[in-house]
Specification:
alpha/beta; 9-stranded mixed beta sheet; globular
């Protein structure tokens, strides 16, 4: 694209968040890197988004509407089908980017080999329009496959992805009701390298109405991830044991004590040195209430009284 640099396509799925998605679009348009196209996918909002977007943003933003709600992963894939960029990024309709995010990531891509498919960065929380700093960690290796098997390796609003790799792995898995980003990072990490820009360049909005704050959805999404990647995880018993341990802890927090016991037993059967699972099984002999209090104390992050389940 000449001196403008490569085209970056940004896809934003949205439903019934007119005010928030407007702020999200503003943060994209304020990028210091200007060769960007924006595709909004209206996932059948009660009030169609297109009139508002046309009135406020004109031809700077393209909007397509799903006649029936299809969910976030399908909406992202639909948005991708309209993309023309060499690089793609996906941003939820309640998150924001800092102005230099895309410029810094494109600069890194220009210095990297074609084996690198993802450049990610750190992010902070946004609570009631106030920024709450997050302690970001960045992977020592550019190969994040093993870390990605254990936990979501990067924040959802942070990566810029080389289009060819996203296309190669088949986009988002539309069967998953949650954790679609984590699943995508696992599949991408099989075929390309990840590079970090070690700065917080995105804001993840916390408002209590999202997967990270919904304990039951968190459990079901982790169960789906475990089922999908079970054959691979069988090769790494320590990581698989940790998955069962985490599911057990989430079930404790949800008051599903029998189910939690099953997961902790699965954890120690696979990897006998999982001390945390043994502690939970020991605590169950005396008091599930005390077990839940300790799990809340050490396993749940609270920001402005909003609980974040890792």
């Amino acid at each position: 694209m000449g001196n403008l640099g490569p085209l970056v396509s940004v896809v934003v799925p949205s439903k019934n968040r007119n005010e928030l998605v407007s702020k999200t679009i503003d943060s994209i348009l304020m990028q210091t890197y200007k060769n960007i196209e924006i595709i909004i996918v209206d996932d059948s909002s009660d009030i169609p988004l297109q009139p508002m977007i046309e009135n406020k943003f004109g031809k700077n933003v393209f909007c397509v509407r799903n006649e029936h709600s299809l969910g976030a992963p399908a909406s992202r894939n639909i948005g991708f089908s309209y993309c023309a960029g060499e690089f793609v990024a996906f941003l939820d309709d309640d998150d924001l980017w800092l102005p230099e995010k895309i410029e810094k990531q494109i600069n890194e891509f220009s210095n990297l080999s074609s084996k690198f498919g993802v450049v990610y960065c750190g992010y902070d929380y946004l609570v009631n329009e106030n920024v709450v700093k997050k302690n970001n960690t960045y992977h020592q290796s550019f190969n994040v496959f093993i870390p990605a098997l254990g936990r979501c390796p990067i924040g959802s609003p942070t990566p810029l992805i080389r289009r060819s790799f996203f296309d190669f792995v088949g986009g988002f898995d539309e069967r998953l009701c949650a954790c679609q980003d984590w699943d995508l990072w696992i599949r991408l990490s099989r075929v390309c390298l990840f590079f970090p820009v070690k700065e917080s360049l995105a804001l993840y909005r916390l408002h209590g109405n999202q997967i990270s704050t919904d304990i039951l959805k968190k459990i079901s999404s982790r169960e789906a991830m475990l089922y999908k990647h079970k054959n691979t995880l069988d090769i790494y018993p320590k990581i698989l044991s940790k998955h069962f341990e985490k599911l057990g802890s989430l079930c404790v927090l949800a008051g599903k004590y029998n189910k939690s016991k099953m997961y902790f037993w699965c954890s120690v059967k696979i990897y006998k040195l999982n001390i945390i699972s043994w502690i939970h099984l020991f605590l169950k002999i005396f008091s599930s209430t005390f077990e839940k209090l300790l799990t809340e104390r050490f396993g749940v992050k609270k920001i402005n009284n909003i609980k974040i389940y890792g």
